[in-house]
Amino acid sequence: METILLTQFIGGLFGLLAVIFGAFGAHALKKKLAPDQLQSFETGVRYQMYHAIILVVLGYNFGFEQAMERYIVYCFILGTFLFSFSIYGLCLSTANGKKLRFLGPITPIGGLLLVIGWALLLYSFIAPML
User: Fold this and answer.
1) Of the candidates 92, 87, 83, the residue with the CA atom closest to the CA atom of residue 34
2) Helix, strand, or coil here: 21?
3) Residues 36-90: tens digit of each pLDDT
4) What are the boundaries of the signal sequence (predicted)?
């Protein structure tokens, strides 16, 4: 039960923050960020919203009786956090003239966790047929 609520809550929170960050990027950061930085920021927002939606859907469809379901959700939660929020940090710190370089390697780790989450989800669909 806790995993269901966590999944739904984090999905809703990620969705809420994606809308807020998207508006912030479109309005407040448009003049502050270079076009490539703004595009990166928007990529972070887009991926965050995609994974907010999938977390809400999974929260209503998974029973979380199998470990695989929890692994999928944890990969999506941690992957989204590492991927999107490291992009936000890189963009905002660069715009302020103090680029946080340590965030650079974190983004691909988050992306890898997202890929693993999707691969596990795909596997969970085909595993019963094997």
Assistant:
1) 92
2) helix
3) 999 999 999 999 999 999 999 999 999 999 999 999 999 999 999 999 999 999 9
4) none
Reading the block at residue 49, the tokens are 């919203």
Tokens representing 15 are 């969705």
* Structural domain of 41: 2-129
Using alpha carbons, list the distances in angstroms from residue 98 to 12, 21, 53, 90.
Answer: 31, 20, 33, 9
Cα distance between residue 107 and residue 83, in whole Å: 4
Answer whether 10's CB lies under 8 Å from 77's CB.
yes
Q: Domain count for the chain, please give it.
A: 1
CA dihedral of residues 113, 114, 120, 124 (deg, nearest 10): 150
Q: 0.90 cut: is pTM over it?
A: yes
Residues listed for the chain: 130
SS3 104: coil
Exposure string (b/e) for 56-78, b if CB count within 10 Å is 16 or more? Answer: bebbeebebeeeebeebbbbbbb
